[in-house]
Amino acid sequence: xxxxxxxVTGGFTGESVISLKSAAVVEKTIDRxxxxxxxxxxxxxxxxxxxxxxxxxxxxxxxxxxxxxxEKITFDGVFNxxxxxxxxxxxxxxxxxxxxxxxxxxxxLTSAITMNKGYTKAIVDDIPELYIAKSLQLFENSATNQxxxxxxxxxxxxxxxxxxxxxxxxxxxxxxxxxPQALASAFAEDKQVLVEEFxxxxxxxxxVFRGKGKITVLPATEIVSSKEYxxxxxxxxxxxxxxxxxxxxxxxxxxxxSRIVEKIYEKLNCKGAVRxxxxxxxxxxxFFFIEINTVPGQTETSLISQQVRAIGMEVKDFYTQxxxxxxx
Length: 328
Fold this sequence. Notes:
By secondary structure, the chain is α+β, with helices and mostly antiparallel strands. The protein is 30% helix and 29% strand. Among the domains are: 3-104, Rossmann fold (3-Layer(aba) Sandwich); 135-197, ATP-grasp fold, A domain (Dna Ligase, domain 1, 2-Layer Sandwich), CATH 3.30.1490. The radius of gyration is 20 Å and the shape is globular. Its main location: cytoplasm.
């Protein structure tokens, strides 16, 4: 008998548009011989399933079920593709935990911690061979904090919302005159802001997942952007960024990166598929951790999809492994 899978998408943030694109790909790629899939859209105060006829069928939040005609449908598990809040910050995970419904992504605690870039860096800081750019975590946009930045950090700087995604509200600051506007943009997106020194190096993004009981580190993708950094436009506009999969690393670098990334996955107690962004510093080749994405995009051209295909695996089989792993 087929398992009933809820494909959750939508969201409470600007990343909802990316969630919908990801969900469309998962919906058409997932193995229909194994699973009956119901796309559940989640917006503030509005959780629903849209029928083939366009009817909006509300979700009963008491048990996360829907009723189609006289049939009440409950779900065996959840394929979570909701980027940002509440799918990536632990809120949905906690809800599903209370209902005892398994899901494909990290648990509530890991999701909440990894959504906070500063907290995540503090946890992975002691992993051998992993380096972290010097940074400050700010909780208010004040003149005192601006002076502290100038005193403790060196230009250029990256300024980003601590809990955001898709590079929304992120800026690169080359002069102190640019600092106030950059802080204002970041604080408009979040109450916490991370200010970190720029690392000059090659940028990569690498997927890692648990399937069939083991951790698999995928080939890294090298990000070569025509923009100064991998911002929202570079991530989601065709032609702005060149993505090279597998990325250009020598044998030692590839081996070291794989070793570090597996440790990150284990240290943060990750589940399902995650994506780790990092720099290899120019000259030294040191691995500088940028951030981890616990609900990575699943569009046709997403980095994870490219990397899965690079190891000769069908994306459909990748999804099957993620789903079956959550039942273990």
